[in-house]
Design goal:
Order of helices and strands: HEHHEHEHEEHEHHEHHEHEHHEHH
Distance between the termini: 60 Å
Shape: globular
Helix content: 40-55%
CATH architecture of the largest domain: Alpha-Beta Barrel
Strand content: 5-15%
Number of strands: 10
CATH class of the largest domain: Alpha Beta
Strand order of the largest sheet: 1-2-3-6-7-8-9-10
Number of domains: 2
Structural class: alpha/beta
CATH topology of the largest domain: TIM Barrel
């Protein structure tokens, strides 16, 4: 019996390796093709928000010469519009910095042009509007350093450095796990973010403001006593520290929502959080009271969860993951229904994973086996009747030949080709 079991196991391993080789060969030869090829637009595909994220990484890749910058900016907008999108989510504050000449934050190290001579952000906004695109100002609310930005690069006269170096205000900026953050529990820090939103909307004609998932950092096992615990201890709050932190985040979101609509009644404010609700509702990170936001008309106009997973996403044990696209999407729809929400539900799509070997729990990643994943995700989302928009991450992948077929499929759906 032991020999027989061993033989079966050997055969299975051999068969598995052979099948992997066959699949990879078919992929390389182009035999496995798009299941969404030639598909027509689904109802609602032409409507709703369809945006592309343009991050600090994309800013850094832009030309430093004004003339060349303008040409490239126009090309960016042309590419977005040509692929059936109608909006750009563009970084204006990524690390308590600014992509324009600000009275609040220092100019970002990622801005390639001279802000004293040329307003690159103004040109980006004007170009977006000329190409029929909405321009949404994208902010990371609390991040000071991390993601290619070091504390040593923070200028001595920056607001973050000045607060940190002042004994009376140094708790407005916290160092945690090697990175610096504005302290979400400090009203001064929240007011600073609201002021940044007001400044952007005063200087520029933007169509919306968006935050992504940079709220509280992951605080780990010590979450109950680290980071802003001293503020909690002195607050006298009867809430748990997790709920107290959620109140801090909600206070910021409510203030930003009010400011956005005060500045421009037609503008919208949205948040693009992590997609898995078990993480979003965790007592160790983010501290987002998503139920409060969805059940009220005082916090957000739209929610755009980053459902950056395929249909076949699995756990390490091989079970279907809670992050798998349809599972995660249905969780959000149930949450919206439970809260009788009037907030618009959009879906974030992982263009950056297409045609890559990103781990997804499968022997051969789904992202390598199919080139129509995003198209099918759009059709699935629209088919629920609950989703009315999409976000595509990120611009650099929109123009990457590696994702060409996926982009073409999206274009066909969005334009009804």
């Amino acid at each position: 019996m032991r020999y027989e079991v061993w033989s079966v196991q050997c055969f299975r391993k051999y068969f598995h390796k052979c099948m992997l080789a066959v699949i990879m060969c078919l992929l390389m030869c182009g035999v496995i093709s798009s299941r969404a090829a030639g598909i027509n637009s689904a109802p609602g595909a032409k409507d709703g928000l369809k945006g592309v994220w343009f991050s600090y990484i994309n800013w850094a890749d832009m030309p430093s010469d004004e003339v060349q910058f303008k040409k490239e900016a126009d090309k960016v907008m042309e590419n977005i519009a040509a692929n059936g999108m109608n909006a750009i989510f563009c970084h204006v504050h990524s690390h308590t910095d600014a992509y324009y000449k600000s009275d609040i934050f220092p100019v970002s190290k990622f801005l390639p042009t001279d802000s004293d001579k040329f307003d690159a952000l103004q040109y980006m906004i004007d170009s977006a509007h000329r190409h029929g695109l909405q321009f949404h100002a994208w902010l990371n609310p609390y991040r000071v350093t991390g993601s290619m930005k070091k504390w040593e690069e923070e200028s001595a006269d920056s607001i973050s450095r000045r607060m940190y170096d002042n004994a009376e205000t140094n708790r407005n900026v916290l160092l945690f796990d090697g990175s610096y953050y504005l302290n979400p529990s400090k009203k001064e820090a929240r007011d600073l973010i609201v002021s940044a939103v007001q400044e952007v909307m005063t200087k520029y004609d933007v169509d919306g403001v968006q935050f992504d998932d940079y709220f509280y950092p992951g605080l780990g096992e010590g979450a109950d006593t680290n980071f802003d615990y001293p503020e909690y201890a002195s607050s006298g709050s009867s809430l748990s520290i997790a709920d107290w932190r959620r109140e801090n985040v909600s206070a910021l979101i409510e203030a930003v929502y009010a400011k956005v609509h005060e500045m421009k009644s037609s503008a919208v404010f949205g948040v693009s959080p992590v997609a898995e609700l078990k993480y979003l509702k965790s007592n160790r990170s983010y501290f987002v009271d998503i139920d409060k936001w969805l059940s009220s008309d005082k916090y957000i106009d739209y929610i755009l969860p980053q459902i950056y997973f395929g249909f076949e996403q699995k756990t390490g044990s091989g079970a279907v993951s809670e992050a798998a696209f349809e599972v995660c999407l249905n969780d959000w729809i149930k949450l919206m229904d439970k809260n009788k929400s009037k907030v618009k539900l959009y879906v974030g799509l992982a263009l950056y994973k297409c045609n890559t070997d990103t781990w997804d729990g499968n022997a051969v990643p789904e992202w390598l086996r199919y080139n129509d994943i995003l198209a099918r995700e759009v059709l699935t989302a629209l088919g629920t009747g609950k989703v009315s928009g999409f976000g595509v991450y990120a611009y650099q992948n929109l123009v990457d030949s590696k994702a060409k077929t996926e982009v073409e499929n999206l274009k066909n759906i969005f334009l009804g080709i």
